[in-house]
Amino acid sequence: MAEHACTTPQRVTEPRTHFAHSPISRTFSELNGALAQYIEYERDIECANAFDPAFADWVADAEAARHNVLDRIASITTAPISRDADKPFQRISLLTRALIICETGADFTALYALLGSHGHFFACFENDPVGHRVQLMLEVHQDHLRALADLSEFAEDPLSFDGIDGTDDQRAMTATAAA
C-alpha cells in the first residue's frame, strides 16, 4: 500500500507574504540614509559663513558624505541583480551618481528631468510585498533627489549659455558691451 507523502514544502506555491532584502536593496536602503546625510551637510554649507572657523570642517564633512554616497552607488551598480525589483535600484543609483557629479546646473536640470519623462524606469510595478517595499524605497529616494535639486550648488547658472536660440549673439553683444 502506498503512503501519502507531501514532497512540496508547505506554502511554496503561495505568494510571498514578507519582504526580504537582496544585497542591492540592503545597500540601497543604506544609500538613502547616506544621501539624506549628504544633503544635510550641503545645506549646512549653504547657510554658513565662509569665514567661520568651522567652515573647513563642514566642507570636509560634506565631501566625506559625498564620497560615502558615491561608494554606495558603486556597490549597487556593480552588484549582480538577484531579482527584477533590483533593476530600478540600479537605474536610479546611476542617475543619482550623474546628478551628483554633473558640473553645470543645466546638466543637472536635464538629468533631473529624466525622473519625470522616464519615470517608469525608476519605479517597481510588482504587486507583492517585495514590489511594494521597493517602491517605497524608490519614493523616499526620489524625495531626496528633490531635496538635492533645491540646493544652490545644483541650481542652473543664469549666466551660462548653451549656444541655442541665439545665445552666441547674446555673448557677442555682452562682450561688445563689456569692451
Can I get a quick summary?
By secondary structure, the chain is mainly alpha-helical. It contains seven helices and no strands. It has one domain (23-154).
Tell me about this structure.
The protein has 179 residues and is mainly alpha-helical. It has one domain (23-154). Helix content is 61%, strand content 0%. The protein contains 7 helices and no strands. It has helices at residues 23-47, 55-78, 87-101, 105-112, 114-117, 129-149, 167-178. Helix 1 (23-47) packs parallel to helix 6 and helix 3 (87-101) packs parallel to helix 6 (129-149). The protein is elongated. The protein starts with 22 loop residues before the first helix and ends with a helix. Mean pLDDT is 84; it is low at 161-167 and 169-179.
